[in-house]
């Protein structure tokens, strides 16, 4: 069975992983998240420079962790988009260099296909049809997935403004909490009342796009509430109520997509899938609807190289055509 090297550099994580026949042999990850912290979000130039420095050692570490040799690698898979253009370019250049040096084929991978395919490494093959809720700092999408190696990804809906993770980060900032805000809000919300404040569930009206999201309005609603509040801020209640609004909106729409598209499996991935309330509500609603919920372990939920190798593995085994060295970054394209 072919051995695939996967490389991911679309945002602020530099990842490499080695996969053979649906099995993750080893991976390595570096993050520039700390360098972005003081800006409150990812700065593309800083991310690209960090990838440049990290990509070679990270690939080496992944190869060592997998206990393989470079000469054993049969194909290189690399994220071609969507993502930050300069960051994607660094991974592409590295992927091309490895493919050329090793004399093996190169495959451009859709980053979102990677988020979905990574689950195969832990829970086995995906069903022929499933809905994926991809919720991270960069994306909030509901996708309809068929065969990841052959079928195009169908975008049922995306956010029209902020991603869910971005909303967590921005709300944390306005509550005076550190970046990245998601894990901090998750922790603080445990001591709060999710019903304390009735924040809006944006884009859930009868005329709204059924699978669209808008989180910037929710963030503004939190900001207004905080501005108007007198006396000590009940931070835990604000965090819990905001988190409840996000979890409710995400899971409601994801389950609607399952029902309307005849999918009996929901895949939930991305940094926000690590959120304890999002997970609990998804479990509760999936159980009630008879839908199987699949969530990769938190380590694989966020950006990593294993997920790109996982797509490469499916694509190579399906006999799909390789890319050539003209493969370019497709920052916003649906590949
Ligand atoms: O998938 P990821 O590591 O990177 C990309 O954006 O692609 O996602 C990072 C995002 C950040 O916005 C972070 O605040 C959020 O995921 N996040 C969480 C939690 N852990 C990470 N949001 C809510 N609850 C969490 N436990
Ligand atoms: Zn991602």
From TrEMBL:
<dbReference type="GO" id="GO:0005506">
    <property type="term" value="F:iron ion binding"/>
</dbReference>
<comment type="function">
    <text>Required for the formation of a threonylcarbamoyl group on adenosine at position 37 (t(6)A37) in tRNAs that read codons beginning with adenine. Is involved in the transfer of the threonylcarbamoyl moiety of threonylcarbamoyl-AMP (TC-AMP) to the N6 group of A37, together with TsaE and TsaB. TsaD likely plays a direct catalytic role in this reaction.</text>
</comment>
<feature type="binding site">
    <location>
        <position position="111"/>
    </location>
    <ligand>
        <name>Fe cation</name>
    </ligand>
</feature>
<comment type="similarity">
    <text>Belongs to the KAE1 / TsaD family.</text>
</comment>
<keyword id="KW-0963">Cytoplasm</keyword>
<dbReference type="InterPro" id="IPR043129">
    <property type="entry name" value="ATPase_NBD"/>
</dbReference>
<feature type="binding site">
    <location>
        <position position="169"/>
    </location>
    <ligand>
        <name>substrate</name>
    </ligand>
</feature>
<keyword id="KW-0819">tRNA processing</keyword>
<keyword id="KW-0408">Iron</keyword>
<feature type="binding site">
    <location>
        <position position="182"/>
    </location>
    <ligand>
        <name>substrate</name>
    </ligand>
</feature>
<dbReference type="InterPro" id="IPR000905">
    <property type="entry name" value="Gcp-like_dom"/>
</dbReference>
<dbReference type="InterPro" id="IPR017861">
    <property type="entry name" value="KAE1/TsaD"/>
</dbReference>
<protein>
    <recommendedName>
        <fullName>tRNA N6-adenosine threonylcarbamoyltransferase</fullName>
        <ecNumber>2.3.1.234</ecNumber>
    </recommendedName>
</protein>
<keyword id="KW-0808">Transferase</keyword>
<dbReference type="InterPro" id="IPR017860">
    <property type="entry name" value="Peptidase_M22_CS"/>
</dbReference>
<dbReference type="GO" id="GO:0002949">
    <property type="term" value="P:tRNA threonylcarbamoyladenosine modification"/>
</dbReference>
<feature type="binding site">
    <location>
        <position position="275"/>
    </location>
    <ligand>
        <name>substrate</name>
    </ligand>
</feature>
<feature type="binding site">
    <location>
        <position position="186"/>
    </location>
    <ligand>
        <name>substrate</name>
    </ligand>
</feature>
<feature type="binding site">
    <location>
        <begin position="134"/>
        <end position="138"/>
    </location>
    <ligand>
        <name>substrate</name>
    </ligand>
</feature>
<keyword id="KW-0012">Acyltransferase</keyword>
<dbReference type="Pfam" id="PF00814">
    <property type="entry name" value="TsaD"/>
</dbReference>
<dbReference type="InterPro" id="IPR022450">
    <property type="entry name" value="TsaD"/>
</dbReference>
<keyword id="KW-0479">Metal-binding</keyword>
<dbReference type="GO" id="GO:0061711">
    <property type="term" value="F:tRNA N(6)-L-threonylcarbamoyladenine synthase activity"/>
</dbReference>
<dbReference type="GO" id="GO:0005737">
    <property type="term" value="C:cytoplasm"/>
</dbReference>
<feature type="binding site">
    <location>
        <position position="115"/>
    </location>
    <ligand>
        <name>Fe cation</name>
    </ligand>
</feature>
<feature type="binding site">
    <location>
        <position position="303"/>
    </location>
    <ligand>
        <name>Fe cation</name>
    </ligand>
</feature>
<feature type="domain" description="Gcp-like">
    <location>
        <begin position="25"/>
        <end position="309"/>
    </location>
</feature>
